[in-house]
Amino acid sequence: MSRAAVIGGVVTNQKPPRSPLWDMPHPLPQLTDDQSAHRPMVAAHAVPWPGEMAVFRSPSFDGFELLTTFGSRARIGELVSDFYSGPTSRFDLGNDLVVDLLTGTLESVTDLTLFGGANAIAIESAPGTWEVVQAGTADLIAPGRYRLTRLLRGQRGTEAAMANPASAGARVVVLDASLASLPIAEADLGLPWNWRIGPASRPVSGETYVAIPFTPEGAGLRPFSVVHVEQTWRRPRTPGDLTIRWTRRSRALSADSWGAMEVPLVEEAEAYEVEILDGATIKRTLTTSTPSVIYTGADQTADWGALLGPGDTLTIRIFQLSALIGRGAAKTVTLTF
């Protein structure tokens, strides 16, 4: 008998499972152009492979209706050893990613192929939290065991999911064409569906099906965190109004083009919220429609009792907004004056 579970917005079917995977689903970002950004993906593995898997859903615990079927077995497995955090936006040459796969193989690829999206793997860095990693070099070191190096970390906006470390035994899924898109509507986002996953040749009420509660969140619609946050005074070297600037990132797959002057805006409108923090307390929330905001001297005095000046620090949290799902990934920085 096989088992199924939601991992990173991906349903996996694994025998035997180390523990239930469906307690804390955490959807993955959009990975390819032919994948709708709001749709979760399904991946499955079973021994023996039944040939075709079926996905049923229901808003209750009965009356399950067939949503889709798919026939590709995914490459899934687990970490052999702890996997530590590393740099983003450049190669991580200091970490080895060692994984055991239940079936399938991995191969080394050129940098050009890697930059095109090859050898992408989702790693459960914490329960319900998934980092997307790409590997340029894959060495077979034992049957089904690979050492992956020349890594690209935190891909597709998952840098905040990086753990230090992701523990040995954490689940991994190779993100490739074996994953099938679940054909749900945007109106289904946020609804707590009950799912059943199992062999299409068997009845949905049978023991070979696994029941999974999963709420699609549309994480592919979630704006990435901003980068390159900096501050300037309205008048050089004079305390007063503070301008905070940053660079917008885009979740568009075409955003990697070097020929564009600016990455595309895929949201309905450009909008941000900036939280002024005092530890865990939110002192103030600023809004703006450009990649900058002014923290006025009057607001500084109201929040802190005085203007910010040399030697002071300010911790802020910035969110780009989506009209469909609200706040994107947060960028938290501490500015020093």
TrEMBL record:
Database matches in Pfam families: Rcc01698_C (PF23666)
Residue stretches making up the Rcc01698-like C-terminal domain: 74-173
Protein name: Rcc01698-like C-terminal domain-containing protein
Naturally occurring in which organism (per UniProt): Primorskyibacter flagellatus
